[in-house]
TrEMBL record:
SUPFAM superfamilies tied to this protein: Flavoproteins
Domain Flavodoxin-like, residue spans: 3-159
Species the sequence originates in: Kineosporia babensis
InterPro entries hit by this protein: Flavodoxin/NO_synth, Flavoprotein-like_sf
Name of the featured protein: Flavodoxin-like domain-containing protein
Source organism superkingdom: Bacteria
GO molecular function, one term: FMN binding
Signal peptide: none
Length: 178
């Protein structure tokens, strides 16, 4: 069973969460390929689950301007992220994906990168079967205590999913797309 993880990160926090999720998946014997969106690796051959991870920027997915803003705050953003990866992905009708986003969660409305991911996936006929949010203390991090442990646990839950299909699979995932 194979999972392709595509992640975008400006200050490295989302990347750390991706590594924790990957650890959980691998603990359960799942083969994982962890890539940065900027690598533009669109090889979905034999992929059972696509996992996308991105920071929330301005209540949605990062874009060129928001990445530039992060750059002015000390981040090292790439110019190609999850939004662009999804825009360029090949047809994968019937494919299944999971997604997570990271954010400060501050303020009344902090938005969702996952929702933006779900909309883009839908255009490719890909179903979002699970989603999660992980928190950072501030724009540049660090991660909120115990959130990496949560990410690892979520990875093990996703692993249970990878070997299954349809409705049965859904029962294994505690966190559904919002
Ligand atoms: C330009 C910009 C806009 C942001 N907007 C939001 C937001 O709307 N909601 C939120 O919860 N966090 C927001 N954040 C905080 C980011 O989500 C946080 O920097 C990110 O989770 C850190 O992950 P990274 O290290 O992978 O970049 C914003 C950060 C930046 C740089």
């Amino acid at each position: 069973m194979n999972v392709l993880v595509v992640v975008e990160s400006c200050f490295s926090n989302t990347h750390r969460f991706a590594e924790a999720v990957v650890m959980g998946l691998r603990e359960r014997g799942i083969e994982v390929r962890l890539t940065d969106a900027a690598d533009q690796d669109w090889d979905l051959t034999d992929v059972d689950l696509l996992l996308l991870g991105a920071p929330i920027h301005n209540r949605g997915l990062p874009n060129r301007l928001s990445r530039m803003l992060a750059g002015t705050q000390g981040a090292s953003p790439k110019t190609f992220g999850v939004a662009e990866w999804l825009d360029g992905m090949p047809e994968w009708a019937g494919g299944r994906a999971a997604a997570f986003d990271t954010g400060t969660g501050r303020g009344f409305i902090h938005g969702s990168a996952v929702n933006a991911i779900a909309k883009r996936l839908e255009r490719h006929g890909v179903e979002l079967v699970a989603s999660e949010r992980f928190l950072v203390e501030a724009m540049e991090g660090p991660v909120v205590p115990k959130q990496l442990a949560r990410a690892r646990l979520w990875g093990t839950a996703l692993a249970s999913y990878v070997g299954k299909t349809g409705e049965t699979a859904r029962l294994w995932i505690s966190s559904k797309p919002k």
